[in-house]
Amino acid sequence: MSESIFLPPKRSLDTFEAECSVLAGVLLNSTMFELVDDILTPEAFTSEAVGELYRIARDRVRSGRPCDPITIRSEAETNPKTAEFWKASAASILTAFVGKPVMRGYARAIADAALLRSLKDEAETLILDVTHAGDKTGAVLVEELQERLERLALTGDTERQMKTSASAIDAMLEATEAAWKAGSALSGIDTGYEGLNDLLSGLRPGGVYVVAARPGVGKSSLMLGLAMRAAQTSGRGLIWSGEMSAEELMSKAVAGKTGLPVDVVMTGHWKFANGERRPVSREEMDRIVSAGMAARDIPMMVDDRGGATVQQILTRARRMKRQKQGLAFIALDYLQLMEASAAVKRSGNRTAEVTEISRDVARMARELNVPVIALSQLNRQSENREDRRPSLADIRDSGAIEQDARCVMALYREEMALRLRVGADGQVSRNSGESDAAYEKRAAEVTERLAKSAGTAEVIVLKNRGGRTGIVGMQFDGPSTWFRGDDERQSDPAW
Fold it and tell me: Where does the SF4 helicase domain start and stop, copy by copy (predicted)?
């Protein structure tokens, strides 16, 4: 015998009576419109006629024109959406008038019912998509559903609390006093690098911090250094790695800790120029294991899915934020490897895709109230200049990245830029038509600069909202691909 299934009573999503009361309130006292303006749109009404009458009233109030049953009568009687309803029900609607104490509550009920109806429509659409999806995979359907639900979440967020200047000042003074008492000059989480802290005052919650560089300069390594050090002092982080697996990423952290080359850490063998391979020593293996065990204690989660969307990362980040360990920061490697929404991808406009990704990342940072370190590629423009230090104009694919970021940092290694001028024979490449004297002088300058720049790097702070810009000197160890501050010793721990 089949078991009975008991369901709660079906709730009504019809808010006609509340809609009539809100409309009556606005028509009989237009100053009450401000109570509902930030909550309601005409589309939220179940009755098309009442929603259209609300739109007419709204437009009159917003434009400063009189709004009452007399002044809207002509338009109501000639508008095909409202004419019949107005003639039949105008008098009865006006008797539904309610006072200010309940007006806003009615508006909330109408908006919530509209959101629930939209959710019901999405559920029905999802069932149709699943049963008649054709060649769409489950992953594609989930992505499309996430996009639609995110749009609903934005339209349903009608009452995000505004802050008074007094409450904002109170929060600011509280944070300032806490930092003062703690003896800290930071207004955000510690970057782990003194030079960066001096310029940025830490990574502020809700801000996007872009680290941009040409391929091979080491932006992933700098991001990992920031993440490992920040996680130790400030709490759990989330890294999205679109280019490397989680294992490869953590091998870089172990290499930085041990000072051994990354490929030695990953293979347990030294590889020599003649092709010979030799296992690492017992002492070197102990160092690798010890660093690995230390890395296990760092509170860090790595998402190494290729081509993730911001929405997918946001979903995981929200879950982490709710958990006991919380979420202190997010790092993304890198923006141009992320996927835009299906609708924008169909446009085939790469600039539009990166613009959407950048805006969504900025919105994610603000929603979660955590700093986001976002890596970005630079275009080739800088390589065509005599001074190859990057500028804001060199950021690839979209100007939105620069606009949305709180801070933009460019990573530059002069040693790498100069080596592009050296041929395979180890000699400085000669320019076409260059005289012997000019070549010898330039070659000597390049050789001297190479020697001075070996093992160094610069983090160029190009934009810093509310703070200073400038250049932070760094040390770079090529074999382990690890960055240290100018003030650090090689014997200091990498993290």
Answer: 182-490
